[in-house]
Amino acid sequence: MLMSLEVPKELKQEAKKHDMYLHPIGKDTYELFFGPQHMATENFSIILKMDGNRVERAIVNPGFLHRGFEKLAEGRPYFTNIALLLRICVPESDVPENIYSMAVDEIIGWEVPERAIWIRTTVLEMARVSAWMFWIMGFGNEIGLYTAGQWAAAYRERFMRLFEELTGGRVYHIYTVPGGVRRDIPGDRWLRQLRDTVEYIKSKLKDFDEILFDNYITFERTEGVGVMDKRFALKHAVTGPNLRAVGVPYDVRKDDPYYLYPELDFEVPVLKEGDSLARVLVRRYELEQDLYILEQLLDMGPPSGPYMVKDPKLKNLPRFKVPAGDAYAHVESTKGDFGAYVVSDGTHKPYRVHVRGPSQSHGVTVLEELLKGARLADVPVILKTLDNCPPDIDR
Prior knowledge:
The chain has about 400 residues and is mostly helical.
């Protein structure tokens, strides 16, 4: 027999303050549940309070994905967590692998081999280009330019095949681990295929410009839509392309460099308008820079030597212990500044793992603010140009 539980009056009053209960609908307003069935939101939902065609108020309603990554990580051995944490951002799963591994490396005091550093840098840039293709696929579809989206999906597949040959997995790679990488690159043939893929996608940028980035439809749908200024962006911890679109030239690869980035030549694209169009164009310019970085890495070539540290304790990974200590590591992802804080108490499991993901701010506070006063048709545009990872919010 089911018991009927009455919510205490004081809890109802507190819940109303935070919009946990929906307010009564006025005669001129209505409530619209936008997602998660709507493809524009992916595994994400927004409750829109509408006045005609305009958004009066937006309430983010996440929670449709895997949750509790950080707490789960405290009950698993260090190397097992790689397969768990990478799910925090599916389109760019190599980022969580790297930030976690970098933090563990620092706690242990490992000096990762040069060959592994080259591979890690290359994999991160491959992940960035693949993520840009994924973003173009979604954005093109949202504004009705489906051809651009289909092209991007096909070009991304070329990177998926390279990832599969390198790591054994297409989406979840479980490749970057504390101490280096799980296995070496397949050989020169793989490097040639990577170069061919980079050159191929670079040759297609002019086609993307013609059909998407220079298309009047893109300008009509994005210019002056979802505007934020520099002060707002800094107040709400905006990072990545969204921050550079308001005129702040912050990029972790330049401002807190890691791996081989100090040796690489690349620019940080910056615009100042702060609208959806600026966010779109910054991403277009960054795609070009990432392809240029990959060309430099291929010209540099992987150094000889091991791809993993030599440590006898690695023979028993389930019981591998990390000395007591803590470390924070972060990288520049396509979503923004992505970091992980790891605390060890000297056992074979982390005492604490906390991830600092950009979507926590972009997909909640910033999104709710930018949607105020927007037209219904602008909702998916603003959402896509902020480029969130819903699992990062639900973690």
